[in-house]
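ugh ok fine here u go
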Amino acid sequence: MADKEKRLVEEITPQEVDFAQWYTDIVLKAELVDYSTVKGFTVLRPYGYALWENMQKELDARFKETGHENVAMPMLIPESLLQKEKDHVVGFAPEVAWVTHGGSEELEERMCIRPTSETVFCDHFSNTLQTWRQLPMKYNQWCSVVRWEKTTRPFLRTREFWWQEGHTIHETAQEAIEETEQMLNLYANFCEKKLMIPVIKGQKTESEKFAGAVATYSIEAMMKDGKALQSATSHYFGDGFSKAFDVTFAGRDNLLQYPHQTSWGLSTRLIGAIIMAHGDDNGLIMPPAVAPVQVAIVPIATHKEGVVDKALEIKEKISAFCRAIVDVSDNSPGWKFSQYEMKGVPLRLEIGPKDIEQNQCVLVRRDNREKYFVPLDKLETEILRLLDELASELYSRALERMKEKTFVCTTLDEMIDTADRGFIKAMWCGEEECEDKLKEIAGLTSRNMPFEQEQIAEVCPVCGKPAKKMVYWAKAY
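structure:
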């Protein structure tokens, strides 16, 4: 920051000094999570959970609008059930946590703690699906899953994380493919319109797709440090899982058929995306749509008669159209300003004796610290306007940053030299060997093959063979 004295939160490591430590400082000091006694497991604290609840509320409404119903599946999966789909079990085997005892007795068959729930949904579908008239079945569940990651970081990669996982079965392949695309577009819209994070939509390469899927689609976001973050995925399974689990139905012709299946998911790692896409050296900057607190009211000179009462009156008034709190603690106003900056509250409302005399208050935007003197009878109009403006500018800045961190490369040397800077758009021959080589020598992974293709060059920059697809490459979380 050019003017260091303006930094209100000195205990946060600046991004340019150590981006990873800056991130860790924020998740802990903003009270989003705490570490637990079990490595890789975190406590989602009230402020962090409130953020996740707001994200859930937005997404859940969209799921239901598109005809999905919430269900709850068991968290334990028998090993024999997991083994039914060969590619699926191989893909998840290294990350599975196993339960071997119930009380003091060893189980006859060990159980895995769900890393994902395709197998239990298929087991359920095989028991309940009978006729085409029941289709489609469009389910979603909110839960946590366990994947035994070797290296962990809060939100981005933890051994337990919270998410939603949608699972649907359809009468035809076309319906299932449309479902897969619909949910990817829903995720992209949520990220761009509510979290104010621009994303790239596309299909994963064969080596990067979900274990057992016919096709996997993803949305990819760019963080401030030049690394990509996979923000959500949507998978088309065809009828492979249905055949493995003997899920059948009587078709319109009265013959047994296999339904076509999808799954799709989004997790708390998007909280990490919010931090790394919008945060600054003073802490979080929350997108207004999901911010646990949208307006923090700070009364000035609380010992003066009428100040606290006026602050409480304002809170009651504005709570009809925004999420507001009033801080009447005995901490100093400067401490409160610092605290709410660190927590990323979009707007701060200051009210003191002189403001009351003039029937006004001061509104301060979190992102640029601009102050606005607002008549109390104009609060609704001005608060909603400033929240909209802040959200719009968060997206504009993130979009501009993504453009600045997107590069076109036509040679292998260019890709190696650009590897740490952001997205790389480059052609690809379609061979897994070239993917492996880029990962080995430059740390780059294919993020996705965007739906909006460009012909950057005629040949693959790795091997020189004719190019088939344009791919977004990047180092990623």
